[in-house]
Amino acid sequence: MTQTTEPPGAGVGGGEVVSFDLTSRPWICVLRRDGSQDELSLGQVFAQADDLRCVVGELATHEFSLVRLLLAVAHDALDGPGDIEDWTELWEDPDCFAPVQAYLEQQRERFDLLHPVTPFMQTAGLHTARDEVFSLNRIVADVPAGEPFFSTRMPDVERLSFAEAARWVVHVHAYDTSGIKSGVVGDDRVKSGKVYPLGTGWAGGLGGVFVEGGTLRETLLLNLVAADTEELAFSGDDRPAWRREPCGPGSDGRAATGLRDLYTWQSRRVLLHHDPDGVHGVVLGYGDPLASRNLHRSEPMTAWRRSPTQEKKLGQSPVYLPLEHDPGRSAWRGIAALLADRLEEGGGAEGPSRLRPRILEWVARLVTEGHLPRRFLVRARVAGVRYGTQQSVVDEVVDDRLEMPVVLLHGRDPAYAAQVIAAAEDADRAVRVLGDLAADLARATGSEQEGPKSAARAGGFDALDHGYRGWLSEMAEAPDPFEHRQTWQRQVRQAVGRLGDRLIAAAGDSAWEGRMHTDNRGSTHWLNAGLADVWFRGRLARALGDPDAPGSADSGAKATTSADGGPPGPEPTGPPGTEHAVTEPEVHV
């Protein structure tokens, strides 16, 4: 922290007037279709959208926040689309973003990063009682607070270019940490010079999802939801941040008005301090907090879950909260949250337990009504943050993509989506079986079990990751989703079987010799690698059934594994395909 002698709001050293117009100055990083990278202005991004593959950033959260900004511009410039027919006209028009240029010219003053009165997404004159200017570490998320051990910027961010500072201003509104922040003059929430935790930036509480097409133009259009979408509420008063009165210190406690408002939600009050050569400091305080409960009709870029705790606390039902990503779980393993149809999840009259992202509901409508071909491929882009220590630091950033054919989203043909979800469950059951084998081998030597079990499961999911993604992309060409799932089950049996062979081969002589083991049911066994192998084959057979048997695409759901290291109970009676499963012999002493 440093003291400044600049008058509040000056921000420019030497009194020289500096401007950085985001509509015409390059600041957004992009990847071109030929694989080269570039940095473009807002106007250039829309003018060249069909020649660009995607927006890129230092973090996946950069991409998420910048795409939302571009969507807010597009929605506002086009004032729509009003309905799905309007959207179709945009999709078929190669020059669909032409009106954006005139819009940006009209809004040019509000897109000036350094404007003395209305700086872009900032609050002019923002200052603390002591006129402090703080390190840029406060807005640069790849500098872990207090632990910059793996940062390329250690130990401090001393200066940013105007282009990079603009990207971090967008990002800090979306993903800033919570915690105690310096109080700014004019904020009635200040106590003893501080404002106590009010939560993260809006996007920080989401399990962020948007849809990527083959080009940035396709990406923007696929996420440009029409106003006649039943699952979302639209308001005539919905406006992005730059078409609202500039924010002052503190908050007026207003509610969000719709997509454009949420995509540019001002969760912080920010002011960059700069000189003609770049940005050297920042003032950062809390802005507008926003409760996330039951905003599923306003925020389309996250899945939602029912919260019994909140329902009990508030005395109302249902209450939906954003479903955040698990950093330890690849996107394909959580594909049910992306694909499960809201009408199939049950939940009675009060509603289902989960809602898939409304942005995918919108794409489902496009394919169901025939506006996209069934074999059209899209990528579900997944981005999010896992915070630590009362949300005051960033622990992990979630970054994943999942390419899939839009037929999976078809509202009137759920078989494809059902088999894709079931295939992910096949993998999960098979990997649990592999983990049980590792635990059994550890028991046979008298070793600790959780470490080998976790390592085996991690290795299993790694081994299946590439295969599942490829199998998923091929679903677009599959004439029969049930047969396609059987193909996957065979792949899983082979891959997990090979991993099991390696575990057994590496177990060593002590595992083959074995030892006495008493399970949680009181049964005593002579457990060695040979018996563990037999159990493994039986469990794997029940987990996946016989992929070559009729009807076996429904098998595996009743598979059992031995949680305590003993043999499972009697062979379960299951659907066709399970009658050939191996029953593990019980060896009692």
From TrEMBL:
Lineage top rank: taxon: Bacteria
Annotated spans, Disordered: 546-589
Gene3D superfamilies referenced in this protein's UniProt entry, alphabetically: 1.10.132.100
Stored Pfam families: CRISPR_Cse1
InterPro entries noted in UniProt: CRISPR-assoc_prot_Cse1
Protein name per UniProt: Type I-E CRISPR-associated protein Cse1/CasA
Originating organism: Streptomyces pactum
